[in-house]
Amino acid sequence: MEINIQPLVPEIIMAVLALLLLLLELFVRRKETVGLLCIASVTVAAYYMPQSFGKAFGGMFISDGYSVFFKFLFFINLILTVLLSIRYIVIERVNHGEYYALMMLSTLGMMIMASAGDLIVLYLGLELMALSTYILAGFIRHDIRSNEAALKYFLLGAFSSAILLYGITMIYGRTGTTGIALIGAALAEGTVDPVLLLSVTALLVALGFKIALAPFHMWAPDAYEGAPTSVTAFMSVGPKAAGFAALGRVFLTGFGPLTGEWSVILIVLSVLTMAVGNILAIQQQNIKRMLAYSSVAHAGYAVIGVIAAGAEGLSSMMNYLFIYALMNIGAFAVVITLRSEGFQGESLHDYKGLSRTHPVAAAVMLVFMFSLTGIPPTAGFIGKFYIFKAAVAAGYAWLAVVAVVFSVISAFFYLRVVMYMYMHEPEGEPLTLSLSPAIGLALLITTVMVLIVGIYPSPFLAFARIAAG
Amino acid sequence: MVELFFGYLAGAVVVLSLLVVFSRNAVHSVLWMLLMFLHMAGLYLLLNAEFLAATQVIVYAGAILVLFLFVIMLLNITEEMRLEQFTVGWPMGVSVSLGVLIAMLAALSGFRTDLKGPWSIEAVERTTHTKALGKVLYTEYMLPFEIASLVLLVAIVGAVYLAKKRLR
Amino acid sequence: MMKLFELLIQPGSFDILLDILVVVLKIAVVIAVVMLHVAYATYFERKVIGHMQVRMGPREVGPHGLLQPVADMLKLFFKEDIIPARADKPVFYLAPVISLMAALSSLAVIPFFDGFVIADINIGLLFILAVSSLGSYGIVLSGWASNSKYSFLGGLRSMAQVISYEVAMGLSLVGVMIMAGSLNLTEIVRAQASYPAGMFAVPQVLGFFVFIVAAIAETNRAPFDLPEAESELVAGYFVEYSGMRFALFYAAEYIGMIVMGALAVTCFLGGWTVPGFVTAVLPFLEHVPGVVWFIGKLYFIIFFYYWIRATLPRYRYDQLMNIGWKILIPLALVNILITGIAKVIL
């Protein structure tokens, strides 16, 4: 058998450099260096990305526009979260080099998921991503909340992995293959039987766990709240996007002939997710918990892109995830700056009067809150607009209306943060922000990008459209 | 004859799994699970997969389950043995399991037995299972194999970090 | 029932019955011989160690104390069987049986001489590893079920020790698997005969070393006998056992020793064969039956066990773990690497 590793070059580079970082951690005294090297490694992998198009290992691994788009998304996610972490993990007193290596390995798992042309590869990529993230969630070993987050995330994640494997075995028993394209070919005759339905449901449930669709979102609030904030930012974007990448590939290519069946289930889940996420977010007093529910709700919007299917739907979903990554990490970056030695800064009340004490931070947070709500001229508006457009074009106008209604509801809790910042007097002791050049850079990038995409979106839309094929 | 063996092994696996769940004493649960793993190894043997059968015993029974025992014994759960029941959600659990069971029974008819790959029983018997598995694993399934090694590495790094790294 | 009957009166079913009968006979022979060896292994252990420590060893029962094992057996047989209060009875009863079964069933795949093996299976080596990993259940369960602190500590120690050293042992055998290209023990022996040295102990010297050390730890023998360290734990996991049940544990330990010795002989010392260069010099040795060679090599290994026990002091627990994880496993991995590279080049 001829082995063509050209499409795998970025993944191999990531793996080798991650292991090198792990070794280097022994000798490097200043762990900040490891963080910077991590960013450098990512750029090396990104450099080799354009040459990687093609298939390897008999179609088990596919590098195409779709996967490359997601891989760039994962890289952005990794770089931004590393920038957030450099100062933050010092404050949390967990400044260890393994942190960066694990983030790289987790990103590697996501890349494999996005490129998987075979369900076994998909499963292993998912495990690699998830296992690294479980450890990262429990990275603050001396904090009981972090332990709890890791444990809950791990138990429910392991549970969902088992369901995924059930689904894979059933589809294997029905079609005799685990190749996603081969499954699509085998199902082309279009007969629907209970095995297929069960297998589709199992895969949907398992991936639903990863992207936190209701009713499989139970782990998300606890895990997001307890995990280190930088890791929360990382796992609210990366694993979710990877889950969407897998969802798009498996359901549109593999289960394409069954679109009529699974889209019904997805519509129900989507509405439920938007309802649960947006309504439960209202009563949260902890900002990380609120953002957790908000990220659940955003998964509900993005799923509409998968339901709409076709290049239009897919590209709107990819575009949405890209924008979501920027604004969500930006919001978490502001949350992190509030955390300082001996001060949690996670309660909504800590934001009261922020505009008086730290006007710039407040203004930046304002941009992200507007964007998460979907108010023009921010990127959030563009993302939602194209999702809804795709839904209407695919004949799901009523779903778009429902989503708009829930967006309006979401304004309540996003704008409450803005109200606290601008219309309340500061309470208690004045806040000190823990700033560093790295986090400043991250905030700059995210803010500028959110505004640029909001005002001049066409190049980004074109990129997603080309990538979706 | 094969049906007879399969019937016994499959039935035993079901009964033993139930015993694992319903045992009051956690150590007894682990022992039932040990027996269940041995029966599963028997099922592999029935499928001509002797390498898998041996690995099943070495890895699951010999290593993983022993670690279960280790943890259970160190926790010394004598209080829990006397508790009536500590989860309230069991009616929900039972109904979900029953639902899954019914769905799976309904799905049985859809499985296909006419699909044949290159590794028929005769081919496996000719090359011996260990060799056949090795060949497939290191050529066709090279990529998953390598990813699996990374997964295990991450698990090791995580275990070492969470258990060993001193607090600063 | 009818079907079973029809199966029995079919032509050819007589051959099957005959096969079964032969296997049963083989099992009976092997168990009888091994049990006899177990009885006298205890005697020789006491004699050898006695002489090494300038004592005489057992002398009272029979000439030179030769009937001592019989006396021991009778004593254990008639002793009262005491079960501790609040012990977990089913598990307490089960534990020694598990130990003994695990040790005995390993014997099934060992080729004692050319053509004599109870079950000539493809994965003989893996079978032994699998079964010996089950043996640790007997120990740990006896420790737990006795409801005694000493037993419990002994059981926990043994569990950690056996798991750690099993990894090293399995890895040390990988070199042998690579060289022989098979997991079948008969074929492994044949493969050795075709190598110039006549045994894998020469090219696999690293693997042999790791295997021998790991085998000592696996069988809980000195200097790795921490699970039953008398000075700390009285007798470790079987403190609470008495009479026949105690005897079962004792037998299991010695059978384990014999199994490990036999495995070393088959995998590293050429089993029932004689190295080619020996028969070239002394051609009459070719007529010595294979079983004699096998047993001779096995006796040597067992003597080596006694020798080590009489010579080395017991290791500390952390030293034991360090040796296992930081020395033996890396050594075994290096051995695999070297063997693999050599196999590819040559």
Describe the structure.
- The complex is a heterotrimer of chains A (469), B (168) and C (346).
- Chain A is mainly alpha-helical.
- Helix content of chain A is 75%, strand content 1%.
- Chain A has one domain (6-468).
- A two-stranded antiparallel ribbon of chain A has the order 1-2.
- Chain A is globular and about 70 Å long.
- Chain B has one domain (2-83, 118-163): NADH-ubiquinone/plastoquinone oxidoreductase chain 6, subunit NuoJ (Four Helix Bundle (Hemerythrin (Met), subunit A), Up-down Bundle), CATH 1.20.120.1200.
- By secondary structure, chain B is mainly α.
- The radius of gyration of chain C is 22 Å and the shape is globular.
- Chain C has 13 helices and no strands.
- In chain C, helix 8 runs antiparallel to helix 13 and helix 10 packs across helix 12.
- The longest helix of chain C has 40 residues, at 13-52.
- At the B-C interface, helix 2 and helix 3 of B face helix 5 and helix 6 of C.
Mean pLDDT score of chain A = 90
- Sheet with the most strands, sense and barrel status of chain B: none
What count of domains describes the coordinates of chain B? 1
Q: Which H/E pattern describes the elements of chain A?
A: HHEEHHHHHHHHHHHHHHHHH
Number of helices of chain A: 19
Arithmetic mean pLDDT of chain B: 84
User: What ranges of chain A have pLDDT less than 50 throughout 5 or more consecutive residues?
Assistant: none
- Binned, the helix content of chain B reads over 70%
The CATH architecture assignment of chain B turns out to be Up-down Bundle
Strand order of the largest sheet of chain A: 1-2
Can you count the helices of chain B? 8
Annotate the secondary structure layout.
The complex is a heterotrimer of chains A (469), B (168) and C (346).
Chain A: H1 9-24, H2 31-47, E1 54-56, E2 61-63, H3 65-91, H4 98-115, H5 119-137, H6 144-175, H7 180-186, H8 194-210, H9 219-226, H10 229-254, H11 259-282, H12 287-308, H13 310-338, H14 354-357, H15 359-373, H16 379-393, H17 397-423, H18 437-455, H19 458-467
Antiparallel strand pairs in A: 1-2
Helix pairs in contact in A: 1-2, 1-4, 2-3, 3-4, 3-10, 3-13, 3-18, 3-19, 4-5, 4-10, 5-6, 5-10, 6-8, 6-9, 7-10, 8-10, 8-11, 9-10, 9-12, 10-12, 10-13, 11-12, 11-17, 12-13, 12-16, 12-17, 13-15, 13-16, 13-18, 13-19, 15-17, 15-18, 16-17, 16-18
Chain B: H1 2-22, H2 26-46, H3 50-75, H4 79-82, H5 90-107, H6 121-127, H7 129-138, H8 142-164
Helix pairs in contact in B: 1-2, 2-3, 6-7
Chain C: H1 2-9, H2 13-52, H3 68-78, H4 89-106, H5 124-145, H6 149-180, H7 185-193, H8 205-218, H9 230-233, H10 243-268, H11 276-281, H12 290-311, H13 317-345
